[in-house]
Amino acid sequence: MKKYILFVLVLPFISSGQPVFPEMGEVFNDDVVTRFDVFINPDTLEWIYNNVESNQEFHALMIFSNGSIVDTMENVGFRLRGNTSRYSAKKSFKLSFNTFESGRKWFGMEKINLNGEHNDPSIARSKLGWDLLREMDVPAPRANHTQVFINGNYYGLYICTEHIDEEFVDSRFGNQDGNLYKCLWPADLAYLGPDPDAYKYTIGERRAYDLKTNTEADDYSDIAQFIGVLNNSTSQQFICEMDDVFNIYDYLKVIAVDVFIGNWDGYIYNKNNFYLYRNTETGKFEYIPYDIDNTYGIDWLDRDWGTRDIYDWEQHGSEVRPLYSRIMDNQELKDQYSYYFDRLLTDLVDPAEYFQKIDNLRAMLEPFVANDPYYPLDYGYDLQDFNNSYEMALGGHVDYGIKPYVSTRRDNAMIQLQINDIQPVVKYILHNQPQAGGNLWVQAYVDDEDGSPDVRLVYTINDGIVEFSFMYDDGEHNDGDENDQIYGGFIPDIQMNSSIEYQVSAEDNFGYESLMPCEPVLVELVESEQNALFINEFMASNDSTIADEFGEYDDWIEIYNGDENAVWLGNKYLSDNLQNPDKWLMPDVMLDSGDFILIWADNDEEQGPTHTNFKLDQEGEEIGIFDSDATGFFLLDSITYGPQATDFSFGRDPDGGMIWQFYNPATPGLSNLLGAIGEDLQANDWVSIYPNPVSHGIVRFSRVLKNVVLYNQVGQIVLKKDVCIFLEVQDLKSGIYILSAEDGLHFKLVIQ
């Protein structure tokens, strides 16, 4: 029998991928110098200092304060971190919040780094670099300055930086199921052949490309493919083929910042210190900078980083760095890099404003350096050296003061810059999932020196004539805010069994045009012969609505079988990422026609077969049900949703229907018809229920009710009365119940 499921097939699926930038928040507030107190057994601390190569973590108590809050956390993991800093007097530390309490987070993070910055007399260079990257919209770690006390003793002024892990990439890209590689020397991205295992080579006891997620699978095929495309694509196809596997346009901004701050210890010069994350929403790798303390005139190689050619940054006489060299060999990308570099110089590091920021930072830090007992121990620095390091070279490895470096680098870069008109940058392309008779909306981010390029959708329907539709940045065309460089437009009235191909065209007033992606996006709306399983209702912020069998109020997803036959779920998948269809295998359950099953989206599979390996994002994401691998993971149903309110569910009206609406009370495991009661959840103008919550065993009604039925949290009937004006509920467990009665009455009843 033909079902009426609406299915959107996208080959390839091109989604936004636009990074998110979390607020600095309480931990990374950089208006003040915060404070970390760590309390650890003194004998343990002595052992750590006597075994500097060890990464063993030990139990500690942490107290954090920032002048507004004081927060205490027990059972925090504590260890040394870093490379050369392990042998310095002023060491660096890692705090881990989930080592001894699995899954625990602190302000959304599982770990943070406390860096001693012993090589930098200013204790400011990496913080200035992280700020520049953030201002250039590069997804880099947050950072600020903090005092570190251990067992009540002051260990000095540190820089607190966000640890790069699965939580970091999830906060920036909205997914964490991709491969995350930590890339250290000699990670040059050179081609070693098609065998993925060739890229697992080790230096000492670590891999150059060290996989940090999905370690059990240990599958390097994605990075092998990326490196193959990088090295082997032709010059003519380089942009198109790289755009399929790498966020190349955002990396141009990383190059600009690296070259400006003189980061010789990164990928381009030293094939070192970066992460690569395969964003499963886009299928592209993202470049994430790491460890940028050797900057702003810090030099160990006898090079003048302030005057070095901004188009010739890589190391001479060494292996090429293909990710840099191939970009510099491509005139279109080179021009776009120059555009970003010019914007950095003009908008972000104008000496008058930038030097004032630097001076303000120095003034804030000075009192904490004055009392830092470890500050002088490595290089003999004193407070005068701290202040001088902003204004002049100190000799040794400090070739420049910060401000002289900025002046020299900026002046030379402005002379070296080769400014040409650029092809508009078109990226972060995203479309919705249309329904029959609805519109196909498309978004795209467009960047160009011309502030008002002409942006259009270029498309065909069922291989027909090429058509055009204008896209706007006015805040009124599903394009975000006005003038945010995100353009929106639509293809109207999509009919069933339609095949649409589209691209986004951007042409500026100088006549330069870009058409992206290189291969059109294919969207098909077809009827499905597969089982009619529906994402019927879900809650992405469950505070008190319903608890799982462990008493935990986790996110949940309700699946409804709208098919006329029972459906076996054991070969089907549920995912919060439509690019990763087989993310979570559904339980070995036969779901009868018209029945519901409640799935806990809690990222805690160990709790049982109805607990997934992902959580839902309250701010919005996507959910999909996929058929077995035998059908190519056919998409059975999906929903892309926006921000959700706590204890409100979002569901279909009616069950399996086309209309989505919010429900409160929610109806987990029950028909959504039970929740269709309007906004007044406890009473209406002709009947009321009291007390609610009830704790004394009897709940009363303002008038006689007929055919009263009380359901528990999993949809089981626990009480029935043909006629009553009260119910005795003293024998029922505490929890949330749904009470229904004749005349279409429905209430949420809370028993305490």
Globally, the shape reads globular
- What fraction of the residues are assigned to beta strands by DSSP? 25-35%
How many helices? The count is 12
**If you compute it from the alpha carbons, what radius of gyration comes out, rounded to the nearest whole angstrom?**
29 Å
**Total E-strand runs:** 38
- Main sheet, how many strands, which sense, barrel? 7 strands, mixed, barrel
Spatial strand arrangement across the major sheet = 2-3-4-5-6-8-7
Give the helix/strand class. Answer: alpha+beta
Query: pLDDT average, as an integer?
Result: 89
Helix content bin: 10-25%
The residue ranges in which pLDDT falls below 50 over 5 or more consecutive positions are 1-15, 676-686
Layout of strands and helices, then pairs:
Elements: E1 6-11, E2 34-39, H1 42-50, E3 58-65, E4 70-81, E5 92-96, E6 111-115, H2 125-135, E7 143-150, E8 153-162, H3 166-173, E9 180-183, E10 202-203, E11 206-207, E12 209-211, H4 221-232, H5 238-245, H6 248-261, H7 267-270, E13 274-279, E14 284-289, H8 322-328, H9 331-348, H10 351-370, H11 383-388, H12 402-416, E15 425-431, E16 440-447, E17 454-461, E18 467-470, E19 486-491, E20 498-507, E21 513-527, E22 533-539, E23 555-561, E24 567-568, E25 573-575, E26 584-585, E27 590-591, E28 596-601, E29 622-626, E30 635-640, E31 649-653, E32 659-663, E33 683-684, E34 687-690, E35 698-711, E36 717-728, E37 735-741, E38 745-751
Parallel strand pairs: 2-7
Antiparallel strand pairs: 1-21, 2-3, 3-4, 4-5, 5-6, 6-8, 7-8, 9-12, 9-13, 10-11, 13-14, 15-16, 16-19, 17-18, 17-20, 20-21, 22-23, 22-31, 23-28, 24-27, 25-26, 25-29, 29-30, 31-32, 33-34, 34-35, 35-36, 35-37, 37-38
Helix pairs in contact: 4-5, 6-9
